[in-house]
Amino acid sequence: MAENTDIAAAAAEQAAQSQNDRRGGGRGQGRGQGGPRGRRPEVAPEEKQFDERVVHIDRVARVVKGGRRFRFRALVVVGDRKNRVGVGTAKGADVTAAVTKATEIAKKHFVTVPTHNGTIPHEAQAKVSGARILIKPASAGTGLIAGGVVRTVLEVAGISNALSKSLGSTNKTNTAYATIAALQSIVPASQWITKKAATEKPAKKAAAKKVEA
After folding, report:
1. pLDDT tens-digit series, residues 137-160
2. Nearest to 161 by CA among 126, 203, 128, 121
3. Is the pLDDT confidence value at 20 over 80?
4. Which architecture does CATH list for 51-189?
5. Which of 29, 44, 53, 62 is 20 to 30 Å from 82 by CA-CA measure?
6. How close are the terminal C-alpha atoms of the chain, in Å?
7. What are the sequence ranges of the domains in the chain?
8. Beta bridge mates, 69
9. pTM
């Protein structure tokens, strides 16, 4: 009887010890893996490569058998503020879908704008449908004297000083595409043909003829 009692007591002690070991090990493992409670690893925010601006959202309707079907149309301007800009417009079943499609279209149609000291090299003008846009260079410190869609396009393109005037329709889509067309027509200063360069060529040809004679 005494031996049975000792065996039972020893078994109970061993079971209690193993249970305590399990509890301690579980807590230690939990703290080691998960770390302090309530804290999450810090994640640095991602820097956006492009500046995306939603200029206008409009609801359009299509008449079908049984009623009207409504959709949304978005006008988006995308640029990298480093002389590249694009405009896109698209329709979607909801606003998010329309903006996503328009953004993708704008990124596929980027235009590189030649600049000089934060402004454009020369005056530019373009007409799309009823919208006519005039853009002029400005000195440093002037800022952007423009409004609406034109200002958004110039900001996203990285132009900090310019003068502009809308001379026709106020339709935002046509104004945006007219602004892009005006910026696209700008010729860099390195490609200009000046009077000095034009007069030098005939003079050189005349000198060459005299030497031959």
Report:
1. 999 999 999 988 999 999 999 999
2. 121
3. no
4. 2-Layer Sandwich (3.30)
5. 44
6. 140
7. 51-189
8. 62
9. 0.68
